Amino acid sequence: MRIAVSFVRSHRLAVVAVTAALLGSGTGFAQAPAAQVRFTPAREHDVRRTVRLTGSVESRTASVVASEVAGVVIAVEAQEGEWVRKDQPLVRLRTDWYDLQLQEAEGRLQESQARLELAESSLRRSRDLFDEEVISRQDLDDAISEYTAWQGREIQSRAEIAQLRLSLDRLTIRAPFTGVVVRKLTDLGQWITAGGEAMAMVELGILDVRVEVPERYYGELTGGVEAAVTIEALAALQVTGRVIAIIPRADPQARTFPIKLRVPNPDSRIGVGMLAAVDLPIGDNRRGVIVPKDAIVRQGPMVLVYRIGEGEVVEPLPVQTGQGLGAWIVVEGPLVAGDRVVTRGNERLQPGQTVVAGPQEYPVP
C-alpha cells in the first residue's frame, strides 16, 4: 500500500512541477479566454514492454564510386552535399585517344565489309566453275577460306568497336543510385586509374538504424516488430522503424547483439551517423494506455499531454512515450483509459485554461 501511495504522490508531484514550470513562463493564465480544441479519449490497448536503447543511423546504401577505366579528369559534374539521380554524370574523363581508336576501328570495319563482299562474289564464281569442272577442289577451298577469313575480320572489327564505345561510355562516371555526394575524391586535371575512387555517395531516402541490444534481451527479440525512433538532434523528431535484421553474433567484449531497423527519412532531414533513441518492444503483450500522437506536446525536455478535467479546464500531464502504433503511441504516466486528451489546438494551451472541446476521431490501431 505504501508503494501505491508513493507512486500516486510521485505523479502528483510531477504534475505540480510541470504546472509550476509552465506557470513560471507566463502571466495571468486565469484571464486566458476559452480555447477551441479537439479531444480524443485515451484507450487501453495490447502493448509490449519497451526498452530504450541508443543506436546509430546508417545509410541503406553507401558506396565509393570508382572509375572503370583510366584517364584524365576534364569535368567534375557534382560537388559534396549535392543530390544526384541514378545514372547522372559525376565525373567526365578525356576521350581523345578512344575517339581516334574508334575512328580507326570503324575504318577497318569498312575495309572488312568491302573485302567480304568481294570474297563472297569470288566464292559464288568459284562454286560455279567447280561445278563445271573448270577449277580444282583446292581453288574452291581457297575461295571458301578467303571468304571465312574476311567474315571473321568483320566480326572482330564489330567487337572492337563495341568495346571502344563501351570504354567511351565508361569515361563518364555515373551515379549508381539516387543519393547525396558526401565526399569528392578526385578533381579537375587529375589522372585517375582504373578502379580509382571518384566520389563517395550515400542513399538518404530510406535509412537503417543499428542498435546494440544487451544479451539479456536477445531471447525476446522479434523480427518485423515496429519501434519508435527518436532523433534528438532534430528537435526530437520521431519516426516509426521496423526491425529488419537480428544478427546472431555478439560483440565479445560488450556481449551485445546488433539489430537493424529500417526507417523512413522524411524530407531527408536525418543524416547518416546521427544518434537515435529506439524504444524497442520486448517480451509479451500487456495492457497499456495509448493516445494519438497529435496529443504529444514537447516543451524543451518535457513531454506532455493536456487532459481536459472538470469544468472543461485543461491540465498538463508529464508522460513518457513508448511504442508507436500507427497514429497512436503508448504513454506511461498519470493517464487512464477514458481521459480526454487534447489533440488539436494544444500548442498554445495554458495550464488551467478553459476550453470548448469537440471530439476528434483516429483510426483504431
How does this structure look, described?
With 365 residues, the chain is an alpha+beta fold. 25% of the residues lie in helices and 40% in strands. It has 3 helices and 22 strands. The strands form 5 sheets. The protein has a 6-stranded antiparallel beta barrel. It has a 4-stranded antiparallel β-sheet with strand order 3-10-8-5, with no helix packed on it. Strands 7-6-4-9 form a 4-stranded antiparallel β-sheet. Helix 2 packs antiparallel against helix 3 (137-170). The chain is elongated and about 120 Å long. The model is unreliable at 1-20 and 23-30 (pLDDT under 50).
Key attributes of the depicted protein:
about 375 residues, alpha+beta, Elongation Factor Tu (Ef-tu), domain 3, OB fold (Dihydrolipoamide Acetyltransferase, E2P), Helix Hairpins, 3 domains, 6-stranded antiparallel beta barrel, 22 strands, about 25% helix, elongated, disordered N terminus
CATH superfamily of the largest domain: Efflux pump adaptor protein, beta barrel domain
Please give the number of β-strands.
22
- Predict the CATH topology of the largest domain: Elongation Factor Tu (Ef-tu), domain 3
Shape: elongated
Main-sheet strand order equals 2-11-14-13-12-15
How far is it from the N-terminal to the C-terminal residue, by CA?
A: 35 Å
Helical stretch tally: 3
Fraction in beta strands:
35-45%
Query: What is the number of independent domains?
Result: 3
Main sheet overview: 6 strands, antiparallel, barrel
